[in-house]
TrEMBL record:
The keyword Oxidoreductase applies. Transmembrane segments: none annotated. The lineage of its organism: Bacteria, Bacillati, Bacillota, Bacilli, Lactobacillales. Residues 113-299 form the D-isomer specific 2-hydroxyacid dehydrogenase NAD-binding domain. GO terms for molecular function: D-lactate dehydrogenase (NAD+) activity; NAD binding. Belongs to the D-isomer specific 2-hydroxyacid dehydrogenase family. This is D-2-hydroxyacid dehydrogenase. Residues 9-330 form the D-isomer specific 2-hydroxyacid dehydrogenase catalytic domain.
Amino acid sequence: MKIFAYGIRKDEEPSLKKWEQANPSVEVGFTEYTLTADSARLAEGSDGVVTLQTSPYTREALEVLKSLGIHYISIRNVGVDNFEFKDLNDLGFTLTNVPVYSPNAIAEHTVLLMGRLLRRVPEFDDKFDHGDFTWAPTIGKEYREQTVGVIGTGHIGRVVIKILQGFGCKVVAYDVYHNDDIEQQGLYVDSLEELYKQADIVTLHVPLFDSNKYMINDKAISQMKDGVYIINCARGELIDTDALIKGLDSGKVAGAGLDVLDDENSVFGKVWSSPDNIPNEKIRNLAHRLNVIITPHSAFYTETAIHNMITTSFDSNKALIEGLKPNNIVDTTK
Ligand code: NAD
Ligand code: COI
C-alpha cells in the first residue's frame, strides 16, 4: 500500500516519521507542494492521498488523481470549504477530514486575540517602539466586564466558551443546532440579531457555506453594539471586509482580531517585509490599524495539533484503502 502526501512542512516530518515507523506496511511518499493539476501526477502508483491547503482543490487536480486510479483523499484539517462536493461525487472520491485535532489550539488563540485587543497590546507595542513607556491613553478593559457572543457552539466554540467563563465573561451563544451542555446553561439566544444586540465581543466559529458567506456585513454590524470587537478564527469569507473597514472607520467597531481573511491566499504564507507591500488593498488597510490584529491562519498551529493532524489523516487514509469506513468520512451529499 502507498500513500502520497501533499504540502508536507518540515514541522510535520517528525510526526510523519513516527507514523511510518508504526505502520511499516505502508510506503509513504510526500512533497512540499500543494495538490494542483501539475503536482497531482506525483501521486502516481499510490492508493490514496493526504493533503492540507487553504487554496481550492480544482476539478483538474482531482481528474488527474482519478486518472491515476486514486479514489481516497484524507485532508489533515477540519474545514472542507475549499472542495466542490459535486466534483468529488462526479469523480467518485471518498473524503475524510480531521474533525477534532485540537479545538483548544484555535480556542486559545481566539481568547488571546480578544485579550490583546481588550488590553490594547498593539498600541502599547507601538508606544514602546517609540520609546514611550507611559500609561495613557491606552487604558484597557477587563474580560469579566464583557458579554461575548459566540456564533457556532461546535468543538471549537464550546472550548472558547469554557475558557471565557474561566475569565468571568458573560457568554451568549447562537447555533442552528443546540448542544445539550450549552442549552442547560441557558446560553443560547434565538437569533443572531439578539446576539448582536447583547455582545461586546462577537466571535465566529461556524463552517463556511454558500449560505453564510459575508454573514458579517453592513446590516449585521449595524445591529451590533457601538464599540463592538469582532473576532474571526473560522473562515475569512464569513466577513465582508468592506463592511468591517467601514465599521472601523466610523468607530462602530472598536477593533478586530482576524486569523482568517477574505482572499487570504493572496497574502498569507509569504513574506512582505512591510505591511506597505501587502498586495491586497483591503488587507493592507486592515494591517495598518493598531486596533486590528491579523494572524496568518495560524490559530491551529501548535505541536499537539500538528501531531494529531498527521496521525488521524494517515490512519484514515489507510483505513479507506483497506476498505474500512472510518467515522470521519465527510458527507459530500449535503
Ligand atoms: P464544528 O463542526 O464542530 O462546529 C461548527 C458549529 O457551527 C456546529 O455546531 C454547527 O451546528 C454550527 N453551524 C453551522 N452553520 C451555522 C450557522 N449558519 N449559524 C450558526 N451555527 C452554525 O466545527 P469546529 O471544529 O468548531 O470548527 C469551526 C470552524 O472553524 C471550521 O469549520 C473551520 O472553518 C474553522 N477552523 C479554523 C481553524 C484556524 O486555524 N483558524 C482551524 C480549525 C477550524
Ligand atoms: C482547519 O483545520 O480547517 C483550518 O482552518 C486549519 C488550516 C491549516 C487549514
